[in-house]
């Protein structure tokens, strides 16, 4: 049955509401994470196998949110499918070349094709199949399955290993217990549970949260929690979270755009077990003849596992500190982040920048308003405006809403 409540809309008055600043920052951080950061640091992400309509006891949205909050799953293994469709322009071989360079491929200098900081950015677009396993905070493994090859990232105690079977290259870093705890507190969303928690931080009076029936995900009975903006002007259509009936763990996260069409992000399990994986799953020895790269630069945070993060401010504080005067304009789902690039100028024009200026201009739409002139770059989820004086406005809002926000914030 579909366990809908009589009044199926929940607002912040019914669930514990975070501070206003954190809610608004979270609403900005989530789409940015979806575009790149989370895809680059993904640890255990899942896609969906959906069938059946299980008969489960009625539950309210507030109760289901509480069930998610109390979920304490630490051990699992399974197969994952992740699909990301941001509607980015086709850059031909440019994207793969950049990723290869970032990962230290054939043309990389001093890098390794097994370095997770480059390899996991592949999850930012297209459809990928993963095998995942976890046994507490000290042991995780993710394998990205490719044609006739496999990339694996293993965290086992103090050791972090990356292995690219295609090139027979190995990446190795070490971490300590304090680093692991620090990274867990600071890393951006990586699992459906993480995505769900970040999305629920954004719940306020501009948000509708309801239970919308049931589903089966990877053979497990689940409730569907749907989060939708009440405001017009947002590019977010709805966020659907499939929540495991027994454990309260989110099994699927789907974000659909207001403009319709396929989901922008769809991650979920196709197979899952909550039994403890065998200890051998997390053991790794470099194969004979493999090139091993030791990561000795301990202030880097590779792939959500390796490297040593700097102690100190929270991620949103780092974000604001790294940008010149980051501010939030508007409210709710129409919140727009703005900051100054510090250059005093926008993108190079075709006259001044030649082919580069013309190329960049062709990727965006030219707009003007009280802020002057600028260029809007669009995906199916996030729009960004760069003005001629070097100010940036970005948010999960339509182009028109973004221009209005820039005019109001000038």
UniProtKB/TrEMBL annotation:
Protein name as annotated: Outer membrane lipoprotein carrier protein LolA
Transmembrane regions listed in the UniProt entry: 28-49
Start-end of Basic and acidic residues biased regions: 291-316
Mitochondrion as UniProt keyword: no
Positions of region (Disordered): 1-20, 97-118, 280-316
Gene3D superfamilies: Lipoprotein localisation LolA/LolB/LppX
UniProt KW keywords: Lipoprotein, Membrane, Transmembrane, Transmembrane helix
């Amino acid at each position: 049955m579909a366990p809908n409540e009589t009044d199926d809309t929940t607002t912040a008055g019914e669930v514990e509401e975070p501070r206003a600043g954190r809610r608004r920052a979270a609403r900005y951080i989530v789409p940015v994470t979806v575009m790149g950061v989370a895809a680059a640091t993904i640890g255990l992400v899942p896609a969906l196998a959906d069938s059946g309509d299980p008969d489960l006891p009625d539950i309210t949205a507030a109760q289901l949110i509480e069930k998610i909050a109390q979920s304490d799953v630490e051990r699992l293994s399974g197969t994952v499918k992740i699909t990301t469709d941001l509607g980015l322009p086709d850059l031909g071989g440019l994207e793969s070349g950049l990723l290869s360079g970032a990962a230290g491929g054939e043309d990389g200098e001093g890098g390794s094709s097994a370095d997770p900081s480059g390899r996991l950015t592949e999850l930012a677009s297209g459809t990928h199949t993963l095998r995942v396993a976890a046994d507490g905070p000290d042991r995780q493994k993710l394998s990205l399955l490719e044609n006739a090859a496999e990339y694996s990232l293993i965290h086992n105690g103090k050791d972090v290993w990356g292995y690219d079977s295609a090139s027979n290259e190995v990446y190795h870093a070490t971490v300590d217990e304090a680093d692991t705890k620090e990274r867990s507190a600071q890393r951006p969303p990586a699992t459906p549970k993480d995505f769900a928690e970040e999305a629920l931080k954004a719940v306020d009076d501009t948000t509708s949260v309801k239970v919308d029936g049931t589903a089966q995900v990877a053979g497990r009975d689940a409730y569907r929690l749907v989060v939708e903006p009440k405001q017009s002007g947002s590019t977010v259509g709805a966020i659907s979270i499939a929540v495991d009936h027994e454990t309260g763990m989110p099994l699927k996260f789907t974000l659909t755009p207001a403009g319709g069409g396929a989901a922008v992000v769809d991650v979920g399990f196709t197979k899952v077990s909550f039994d403890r994986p065998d200890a051998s799953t997390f053991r790794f020895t470099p194969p004979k003849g493999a090139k091993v790269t030791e990561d000795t630069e301990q202030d880097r945070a590779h792939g959500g596992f390796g490297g040593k993060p700097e102690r100190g401010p929270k991620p949103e504080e780092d974000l604001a500190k790294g940008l010149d005067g980051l501010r939030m304009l508007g409210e709710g789902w129409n919140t727009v982040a703005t900051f100054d690039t510090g250059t005093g100028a926008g993108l190079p024009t075709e006259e001044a920048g030649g082919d580069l200026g013309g190329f960049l201009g062709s990727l965006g739409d030219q707009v003007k308003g009280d802020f002057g002139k600028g260029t809007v770059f669009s995906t199916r989820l996030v729009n960004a405006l760069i003005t001629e004086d070097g100010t940036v406005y970005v948010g999960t809002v339509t182009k028109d809403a973004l221009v209005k926000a820039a005019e109001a914030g000038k």
